[in-house]
Specification:
Syndetin, transport, 946 residues, VPS54_N, 37 helices, rod-shaped, 68% helix, coiled coil, two-stranded antiparallel ribbon, Syndetin_C, two-stranded antiparallel sheet
């Protein structure tokens, strides 16, 4: 059939017109095919098994490929020497194989006759369709030929040119867009320099969209990759701009950066990057500051490569001269970073709340808030570690106290900033401060004790001229307490300065937080500790015509400033003349009695209290050392001016004072022979000091100066002034020390501070005992006869001698008072001791009388009354002390026998010798009664000794 179609096609191409193909039915084709098969192959009946063997004998090459050339294959199999028989045999074999295959194919055709007919019918239908398509093509070609004849070439050319024009216009627009895209890179750089991050990002994204439209151009594909690099560069510069906000936060700048990140859709990543930048800023800033100071100090000793060293090692190269300024700069830089972080949180709290519109924004706000809140502790921990390592790397024991206090104040401010920043207690920094402070304070306190000993050994016990209203708040070292004292109304109104009043008015302002006061400007570490502030502690006296005048009369009443007339002479006098005569007396009496050593102790106390107020964890350690200063002062004053009081006048010394002195001796004083000042090898925890020795300038044995009464008064009253300041400080100390340590403070006040006033008795008792010759009075009393029978009307001369001694003593006291103002309490105590000594001398002299009569007892009463009468004209002491001591002893002589025993048992203040003398002098006692009373007195004396 294929051959037939080919022949028809060949014949048709030769004809001028196309003729319709001859239609054949499927039946015809099948009939023809069967006939051909029948003609070509003669079907012979063959055994099926033989037929299968013949088919199996066909070589596999006949099945491999349809294009297999069977003839060539058989020819190639022929040997070089041809054999007719062999060829005949092969032909027969091939013929048999062909017959078997043809038969098998014929059988298969007959078996699939229906499917073959159906498929063949489809092929005929396809043929008819193809013939119809051919007719359509012929018709189309005819129409095209007609169009070619109908339209001219010029018309088609015109249309072609117009199309080209439109294409070129589109191309021109594309070229202009490409040109704009080529110039975009320069504009992007300009916008980044102008910090227009949002505009740059928007422009870059628009350019990327345009580049995707023209990506079929080769230059645009290269530009697209370049724009992506530019966008990455913008993100890098945006990250750099974000890092700049860590050190110096600018609201406008940060708003631009955040808006740019929001435009990129990377706001959460920006917060993560920001936290990393803050950490890097802390580390890099601290390292840069330390490195600058190290390179500055090491420039002269040879440049070393410090940039490659670790921060801890770098801190060890900071010198003591540069430590404080370096610490200040470090804290200032850390403050700026924390302030920027605080402003960052405030910015997000304000702006995120305003832009909280959808769920995504709410999630964003929560994410940012959580990150920033958690970042507070991380930021402060990094800051704390930088400062802690810096402080621990340097030995601070060699610093001056004022400088060390300033360092403590700086670090304490940093701790307060940290507590406000993230509510952290800064345990690491607190422990560092405590460690450094204790190490420093052990060395410093030992030096201060040695310094106090040196002051006491060189003290001349002269009065230091200070203001009449002087107290510790006038010293620079205590100025930090004025605010505390003013808040508790402990400063008199007339002593309030303008600064104090301003402080009281601005208390609320100062109570504000650091981030409120210094958020916009200033720095909490800018204010230097006021160590050069002027003091106003010394008295402002002017000398005119030999008179000491106050340079201020503001404390004088207006009525006293008026002129007056002397009632005796009638002369008129001005206020100035009156003021000259009274100013010295008033100021002389009001001036506190303190010494240079007292001022030194007060200054040291003020510095110690500054350390306590700044660093409360070591408050108890500092307070314990602070009490040692007072202990040593107390013990030294007692040992200088009452060394024999314990042995000679034991009854005059308070037993509690003796216990206090013994405690001080055991706990604070060391063996002088074994003591080496400032011995670094000694155990610093002992805090012991050698006993001070009085200066040779001080003379306590001269009767003309009342045995150094002026020096004794200055020393004792300065001790009491010191104790008074301790009383003033008690409320302040109770606020500072822990509750568990308040027992120590109360014991110190009760056992030491309150005992200072008891030092007066033994110190002034020495002078009162040496200023009057009581032994001489006793000798004169021993020459008096007390067994007179008549009552005498004239007193004995020993009374006159004793009164003369008291009168002379009064004049000497006035001389001493001109040199040192004697407080009234001191004068009264001194006269009280003198009168007590005189009364005991009277009793002792009366007890020495071997014989006595009623007239003698009356004479004793007369003498004592004469003494009391004249004594009222010499001293102003009221009432006379121990008057009953003498009168009772004299009157006991007249007691009846039944009452005398009771009187002896009730009056234990008399010695056994005096009681025995009384019993033996009473002439109306029987021998038995006298013996009984004697036994009672002796038994009582034995009980006293036990």
């Amino acid at each position: 059939m294929a051959l037939k179609l080919k022949l028809k096609s060949f014949i048709g191409s030769k004809q001028e017109s196309v003729q319709a193909p001859i239609e054949e039915t499927v039946t015809d084709i099948l009939t023809i095919g069967a006939a051909v098969t029948k003609n070509k192959v003669e079907i012979k009946p063959v055994n099926p098994h033989e037929e299968q063997e013949i088919i199996d004998g066909i070589e596999e090459n006949y099945y491999d490929n349809e294009s297999f050339d069977t003839s060539l294959h058989e020819l190639q199999k022929l040997p070089e020497q041809l054999d007719a028989d062999h060829i005949t045999e092969d032909c027969l074999r091939l013929r048999n194989q062909l017959q078997a295959v043809s038969k098998r194919v014929s059988e298969l055709i007959l078996q699939n006759h229906l499917a073959y007919a159906t498929e063949l019918q489809q092929v005929m239908d396809l043929q008819r369709t193809l013939q119809a398509a051919g007719l359509v093509c012929q018709t189309g070609r005819k129409h095209l030929s007609h169009a070619r004849k109908s339209f001219t070439v010029a018309s088609l050319g015109l249309l072609s040119n117009y199309r080209k024009r439109q294409q070129l216009i589109g191309l021109l627009k594309s070229l202009r867009t490409i040109k704009t895209l080529q110039r975009t890179d320069l504009r992007l750089r300009e916008m980044m320099e102008e910090e227009d991050y949002c505009g740059a990002i928007h422009l870059c994204q628009e350019c990327q969209k345009a580049a995707s439209t023209f990506k079929h151009y080769k230059c645009i594909s290269e530009l697209s990759s370049k724009l992506q690099d530019t966008l990455e560069m913008i993100e890098e510069q945006l990250d750099v701009a974000l890092s700049k906000t860590c050190s110096h936060f600018d609201h406008l700048h940060y708003s631009k950066v955040q808006q740019a990140y929001r435009q990129l859709g990377k706001t959460q990543m920006a917060i993560d990057q920001l936290l990393m930048h803050f950490t890097s800023a802390i580390h890099n800033t601290a390292f840069t500051i330390i490195l600058g100071y190290v390179e500055l100090t090491s420039a002269s000793s040879g440049a070393a490569n410090f940039q490659k060293r670790q921060y801890d090692d770098l801190c060890k190269h900071i010198t003591t001269e540069t430590f404080t300024p370096c610490l200040v700069d470090l804290c200032k830089a850390m403050w700026e970073i924390m302030k920027s972080y605080f402003k960052t949180i405030s910015w997000h709290a304000l702006n995120d709340q305003d832009s909280c519109d959808g769920d995504s924004e709410i999630f964003h706000q929560r994410y940012v808030g959580t990150k920033l809140d958690h970042g507070r502790s991380r930021i402060w921990e990094d800051v704390q570690q930088r400062v802690k390592k810096f402080v621990l790397a340097t030995d601070l024991s060699g610093f001056k106290f004022d400088e060390f206090i300033y360092i403590l104040d700086i670090i304490n401010r940093m701790i307060e900033v940290g507590e406000e920043f993230c509510a952290s207690k800064s345990e690491g920094l607190q422990d560092t401060l405590k460690l450094q402070s204790l190490n420093y304070f052990k060395t410093h306190h030992q030096i201060r004790l040695d310094e106090l000993r040196m002051f006491l050994e060189n003290e001349a016990w002269e009065m230091c001229p200070v203001r009449s209203n002087f107290n510790i708040l006038h010293l620079v070292e205590f100025r930090f307490m004025r605010k505390w004292a003013n808040s508790r109304h402990m400063i008199p109104e007339n002593e309030l300065t303008t600064e104090d009043k301003c402080e009281s008015l601005t208390t609320d302002q100062e109570s504000k937080s650091y981030f409120s006061c210094y958020l916009e400007e200033g720095n909490p570490f800018d204010k230097r500790f006021e160590e050069e502030e002027k003091e106003d502690v010394f008295s402002a006296l002017l000398e005119t015509d030999g008179e000491l005048l106050s340079d201020s009369d503001s404390d004088v009443a207006e009525d006293l400033k008026k002129d007056y007339i002397d009632e005796i002479t009638g002369e008129a006098h001005s206020y100035k003349h009156k003021r000259r005569s009274s100013s010295r007396t008033i100021l002389h009496k009001q001036t506190p009695l303190i010494t240079n050593t007292t001022l030194n102790v007060l200054r040291v106390m003020g510095k110690y209290l500054q350390m306590i107020s700044i660093l409360k964890p070591i408050a108890f350690d500092v307070l314990s050392s602070l009490t040692q200063l007072f202990d040593y002062y107390l013990y030294t004053v007692f040992s200088f001016f009452a060394p024999d009081a314990c042995s000679h006048t034991e009854k005059a010394v308070n037993p509690r004072l003796l216990n206090t002195l013994q405690r001080i001796r055991d706990n604070l004083l060391t063996n002088s022979a074994m003591y080496v000042p400032n011995n670094k090898d000694a155990d610093a925890s002992t805090d012991k000091v050698a006993t001070a020795k009085m200066s040779s300038v001080v003379q306590l044995s001269d009767p003309k100066s009342l045995f150094g009464l002026a020096e004794r008064v200055v020393a004792t009253e300065s001790l009491l002034f010191l104790a008074k300041q301790w009383d003033y400080l008690q409320p302040y100390l109770e606020e500072l020390i822990p509750i568990t340590k308040k027992t120590f403070l109360s014991q110190f006040y009760s056992q030491t501070v309150k005992m200072a006033v008891e030092v007066r008795v033994p110190v002034y008792g020495v002078v009162s005992g040496l200023s009057v010759s009581y032994e001489s009075v006793l000798q004169q009393m021993s020459t008096v006869r007390w067994d007179v029978k008549e009552i005498m009307s004239q007193h004995n001369t020993y009374i006159d001698q004793l009164l003369k001694c008291f009168s002379d003593l009064c004049k000497k006291l006035e001389e001493v008072d001109k040199r040192v103002p004697l407080p009234k309490v001191v004068i009264n105590l001194f006269w009280e001791q003198c009168v007590k000594n005189a009364n005991r001398t009277f009793v002792e002299g009366y007890a020495n009388a071997k014989k006595c009569s009623n007239g003698g007892r009356a004479l004793m009463q007369l003498d004592f009354q004469q003494f009391l009468t004249k004594l009222d004209q010499i001293i102003e002491l009221r009432p006379i002390p121990d008057k009953e001591f003498v009168e009772a002893y004299i009157k006991a002589y007249y007691l009846p026998e039944s009452q005398l025993e009771t009187w002896i048992n009730d009056h234990k203040e008399y010695s056994s010798k005096q009681l025995l003398a009384l019993v033996n002098s009473v002439d109306h006692l029987s021998r038995k009664s006298r013996q009984k009373l004697t036994n009672i007195i002796e038994e009582t004396d034995k009980g006293r000794r036990l």
